[in-house]
Amino acid sequence: MRILLGITGGIAAYKAANLIRAFSEAGHEVTVLPTENALRFIGKATLEALSGHNIDIDMYSDVEKVRHVALGQDADAIVVAPATAAFLGRLAAGIADDLLMNAILASEAPVFVAPAMHTEMWQNLATQANVSILTDRGIRIMEPASGRLTGEDSGPGRLPEVEDIVDFVLGSGSLRGKSVIVTAGGTREPIDAVRFIGNRSSGRMGVEIAKAARDQGAQVTLIAANLEVPAPAGVRVITVGSVGELEIAMQEPADVLVMAAAVSDFTVDTPATGKIKRSGTLELTLTATKDLVADYASKFPASYCVGFALVDSEGELEATARRKLTEKNLKLVVGNSLNALGSTKTDVLLVSDSDSSSVSGSKAEVAKSLVAFISNAVSV
């Protein structure tokens, strides 16, 4: 595969050297196209030695060969790493003011972008708006890593590790062309205007599943119920609060549904319109909510529906998961215990009709294993 590697002007530009080597060692031909500012951070001689190609960023060199078009048309994939906030803004606006931007706009190849910048710049509303615009156009944008940044600061905005970028670009893409809905977080059922019945779900597991599905090329819709963690870039996000709102958001078919949200089992019959005043006794009448994942599986039988089973005791895990698998007409149930709530690590049991397997690790690692299992199942 012919990869056009764009490098923009950030301190993480030095990591592009290892990225060139990784793509080359995987058997791909790499043409490097740094911006003028990128060459302030990494030398042209280094890039030429690693790629085996001459580096010329002058828009007006070899004009007769129409290089600004040929570079984009010759590429099978375009990767920009690191990508600065300024680059994201120019790409979103379609401003072709250098050779790299011209090549991207002249190409029909898939574009993969790995942003790297300071946390506040990444989280700035302007940057996030640009990310949304680019994602809507089909450009795949990788979530920045969290960690040490320039200076003494730490946080999201760090360029992901080389092996993660390579996997993002060259990964199996086993869910390309598939639509995936992931629910995440915990619903809240109002008692009055200020109080609610809720749960301790942070939404972290669902967010990691959405990222893993996105990284395998799926078109992901994340239905987010009161998340305590940021929603990922590169996915469509629908924000909901209650079970009723979640049900409305789940009215579209998808190839895969992963019901990772912690859905309230009960709702208050008649929530107060204002704030209930303190008194000696308060009685609430609760009604059981609809089983949303079972309802979805019934409405959309062609979907690969995945549910979760949360139990007090690990000894009950497989039996509970198998019962839910049958009762709700699901394809897969992920069993976990109360220890997973609020934690960054988890142990789960994947239970299908034919098998069961344990998966342990960080929620990101477990999410990748779960999505790999789903990918294998839906590709059969």
Report on this model:
The chain is α/β, with parallel strands linked by helices. The chain folds into 2 domains: 2-170, Rossmann fold, CATH 3.40.50.1950; 179-378, Rossmann fold (3-Layer(aba) Sandwich). It contains 13 helices and 19 strands. An 8-stranded mixed beta sheet has the order 12-11-8-13-16-17-18-19, with helices on both faces. A 5-stranded parallel beta sheet has the order 2-1-3-4-5, sandwiched between helices. Helix 1 packs across helix 8 (162-170). It is elongated, with a radius of gyration of 24 Å. The mean pLDDT is 91.
SSE layout and pairings?
Blueprint: E1 2-7, H1 16-25, E2 29-34, H2 44-51, H3 67-74, E3 77-83, H4 85-93, H5 99-105, E4 111-115, H6 119-123, H7 125-136, E5 140-141, E6 145-148, E7 154-158, H8 162-170, E8 179-185, E9 189-190, E10 196-197, H9 204-215, E11 219-225, E12 236-240, H10 243-249, E13 256-259, E14 266-268, E15 286-288, H11 292-299, E16 304-311, H12 317-327, E17 332-337, E18 345-351, E19 356-362, H13 363-378
Parallel strand pairs: 1-2, 1-3, 3-4, 4-5, 8-11, 8-13, 11-12, 13-16, 16-17
Antiparallel strand pairs: 6-7, 9-10, 14-15, 17-18, 18-19
Helix pairs in contact: 1-2, 1-8, 3-5, 4-7, 9-13
